[in-house]
Amino acid sequence: MKIKRQKSHRKVMRFYQTVFGFQEPYRALIDGTFINAALKSKVHIKEQLPKLLGARTTPVVTECVYQELRDLGADFSGSAIIARGYYRLKCGHAKGECSAADCIVKQLGTNNPKQYLVCTQDKALRERVRHVPGAGLILLHGGQVPIVEQPSDASLRIARKQENGGL
């Protein structure tokens, strides 16, 4: 099963490299729900993401994600400590101006020009990210195994347009 999963992840990443120009090191935009789920299931994100993607990966959190983890209190203090060790993206939002999910979607924009892979466990955020072409999704399957989701319909539409335009 593990070999099938690795092969699938390689194919997905090759798709993003070919169609959207993703390059190493990949930038993984991480949500607080993903950090918390990884902490609970003892998944070391900085070690697992490069293994999962087969390339160097930079974990990134926005200021809003970090602030939200700090505001959630003692239950999420471990997640906030982990998030402190990641590259922090200056989003420019004032404290409490927007939620972490809104901040992540704003970072992606309409076509993900900075080539982020979004790591989240939040179903509503995943649905919003699927509408952005070129935004890859990583989640913890069963709460323990990180997986790269297949490209969304929006990404596949862009790939088909490029393919038809090249003929």
TrEMBL record:
Keyword Nucleus (UniProt): yes
Domain of life: Eukaryota
Subcellular localization(s) per the UniProt record: Nucleus, Nucleolus
Cellular component terms (Gene Ontology): small-subunit processome
Keywords: Nucleus, Ribosome biogenesis, rRNA processing
Biological processes annotated in GO: rRNA processing
Gene3D superfamilies according to UniProt: 5'-nuclease
Function: Involved in rRNA-processing and ribosome biogenesis.
Family: Belongs to the UTP23/FCF1 family. UTP23 subfamily.
Protein name: Small subunit processome component
Organism: Perkinsus chesapeaki (Clam parasite)
Source organism phylogeny: Eukaryota, Sar, Alveolata, Perkinsozoa, Perkinsea
Annotated gene: UTP23
